[in-house]
Amino acid sequence: MIRVIGTYGRRVLRHRRVRTLVWGVAAFVAAGTGIVATIENVATAGDREFPVATDYSGRLVIQSTTDYMIFAPVIEAFQERWPDILITYNELTTNELNAAVEHACDQNRFMGDLIISSSIDQQLKLVNDGCAQSPGPRVGENLPDWAKWRDELFGLTYEPAVTVYNKAFFADREPPENRFDLIDLLRESDTFRAKVGSYDIETSGVGYLFAFQDAIQASTWGRLVESLGRNEAQLFCCTGEILDRVADGRLLLGYNVLGSYALSRIGRDDRVGMVLPSDYTLIMSRAAFISRDAEQPGLARAFIDFMLSAPGRAILSRDAGLLSPIDGPARLARLVGVPRDADPQELRPIALTPALLVGLDQAKRNIFLQQWRAALPPRQLSKHP
User: Fold this and answer.
1) Transmembrane segments in this chain: where (predicted)?
2) What is the pTM assigned to this prediction?
């Protein structure tokens, strides 16, 4: 079993929050998904401006699902190289961002220059639908084949889907090493009732991605979902909510949590532990593309180039806890102490290929969500504070 401890430093951030803003109309309806993102439920959306000391010569607008504090160090480092470039960073949830970009693309309207999301299936569909443009030759040439598609979509990170646990509760017992162990553990219904958290796959794009990949990869999927439902698993839109509750004991376990956020939390909170499942660990690379209607495509290309460069990768790893597809496997192995004889098949990157579109097929999605709802009917979190 691979457990993780570690520390990540953080630089003092000099950005400032400007305002809360939902781009375009007050509501975006995502075709085929029934998602409506309104001003009322986009609580985390908002522009954060990274200013320059003097008059700026250009503005790069980044639309992203990544916590701005995680990307802030690399944005500031980019501005050290481009000191006259003002950067506006807008943060939304995966489904909100996808709906907003889709709407802007349909309307041939500018929304942002660079689009970055952990919901890589949604990203690939947007690119496939013509919402992106190629940055030109040589961009991403050092990426592995699985982390790029059609010279328009580029994987920037190397992030495992992990199990997190409350260390105090598991002080005298082993946390689940793999999905088989997790299913066995959840037979203790009284112990884990309403004490296991995961993503709400109807509101979290990356949650849906991980769940659909689990259904493809694992013979355990049906039993696992049934076990989660029987134990009244709590569902959340965002990683931070799961980690907060695991840390304070409201949850004892979090399943399929983004490892980058977990690693960052572990570096400053010794109440949380993390396991890379030994049967297999999904690897997600949050993907970026330059919008077809970008006003500053050159700056967007420069930002992608910087993030994939050796200095950019070092900042991502050191200050943000984000590994890169280029050297991520080796860095992850060193970070978590993967044995030399470990089976490399345990780490399974989710490739940026058209196969990701299967899970977004409306008929297949509806069937998958019906099965999910049957096992995990909606519940009010207030019942289990």
Assistant:
1) 21-39
2) 0.82
